[in-house]
Each structure stands twice: as C-alpha cells, then as structure tokens.
Amino acid sequence: MANSAQALKRAKQAEKSRQQNMTLRSRLRTKIKSVVYSAEEGNTEATTSAYKEAVPYIDSAVNKGLIHRNKAARLKSRLNARIVKLQQA
Question: Is there a contact between 64 and 24 (Cβ–Cβ < 8 Å)?
Fold first, then answer.
C-alpha cells in the first residue's frame, strides 16, 4: 500500500489509466476482428466498411500510446492485404 499522499494519488491514477487502456485495447481488438471475420466470410463490402471503421481506432491507439506506430502500420497493411486478396478472388 502507498506510504505517502503522492504515492496514493499515483496508484489511483495508474488504476484509472489501466482501466481506460483495457477498454480502448478491447475495442481496438474487436474492430480488428470484425475485419478479419468479414474477410473470412468472403464479403468484400463488409470487409471494406469494417476496415474503414477500424483505421481510426488504430490511429487513436497510437496517439494514446497503446500501441507503437509501426505496429499500427503493420496492422493496417495486413488488414488491407486481406481486402485486396478478396477483391482479386
């Protein structure tokens, strides 16, 4: 347990931040899964719309420090590759 007022406040802030990060990370993963699942079903339009919905969440996660910018670029690239693969098939 915290021994000073400052440590107590930091512990409270850390817990609040952790809760917010968990929420945002969960929402991000859900958006990514929606793209993957619609791509597996073979629905190009649904996949494209899910991708367009997921990209702002990915960018937001970078701005909030949840994920690294290179990871965000990699995620977007891989999701977009699924869309391109669907359109070619």
Answer: yes
